[in-house]
Amino acid sequence: MNSDMSQLWCYLSTSPLLWLTVTLLAYQLGVWCFQRCGCSQLLNPVLTAVLVLVLLLKLSATDYQTYFRGAQFIHFLLGPATVALAIPLYREIAVIRKSFMPIIVALFAGSLAAILSAVGIARLLGGERILLLTLSPKSVTTPIAMGISEQIGGLPALTAVAVVLTGITGVVIGDLVLNRMKVHDETARGMAFGIASHGIGTAHAMHKSRVTGAFSALAMALNGLLTALLLPLLVSLLR
After folding, report:
1. Same-domain pairing of 100 and 38
2. pLDDT digits (tens, 9 = 90+) for 211-231
3. Over the stretch 66-91, which tens digit does the pLDDT of each residue have?
4. Range of the domain at 88
5. Mean pLDDT value across the chain
6. What is the pTM of this model?
7. pLDDT at 84
8. 51 and 92 belong to one structural domain
């Protein structure tokens, strides 16, 4: 019996369908825990799913390459999901046009703050140059951040980890920080989540209101574009 179960596991563990299903179930578990606990951001569905998946991979001694053969189908959907954010932007286009100058100012300030804070903290803690380059695009959505990291000489895989952690951290403490700073304007909160916490923050903002979600989506997209242009230039100047 044990031999049969072992053979079955060996077969299933190499199947892309298994880890695709496990990923979806882990996220669904995260959503269930989030809703059952009063929508506390300490139990953010993404954070819960990540912890469950790490635990399962560790217990089953499954390497990341095997897991990603199944998870790549979800990874592929990041592109279409990002493009689909144009819909809430279109719905709130009149509000966005009225706030053009504040958006530009907030975008430059937020983008520079995201880059300099990551590099500065890592430098103060004794991080090496390659680590500084790896962390610098951590507030940009994953596909763009990995591309920037590779271009400037960082480690794209580690950048992806930093991006996910940044997004989760921003969602967990974002509302608390903004409330303490008495920032209640929907457009300002949306810009903050989009610049600081990219896609994960935008998903959170979508649950707040249409305006917050639209401005977060706009900020995420523009921050990705600005960082892709600005960061390589800053790195070349520092060299």
Report:
1. no
2. 888 888 888 888 888 888 888
3. 888 877 777 777 777 777 777 777 77
4. 83-238
5. 83
6. 0.76
7. 77
8. no
Whether the per-residue pLDDT at 153 is higher than 60: the answer is yes
Question: Same domain for 230 and 132?
Answer: yes
Verify that 65 and 145 share a domain, yes or no: no
- Same domain, yes or no: 55 and 102: no
Banded model confidence at residue 22, pLDDT cuts 50, 70, 90 = confident
C-alpha distance across the termini of the chain, in Å: 63
Joined tokens for residue 2: 């044990």
Same domain membership, residue 50 and residue 87 = no
Domains: count for the chain: 2
Among residues 76, 102, 123, the one where a domain terminates is: 76
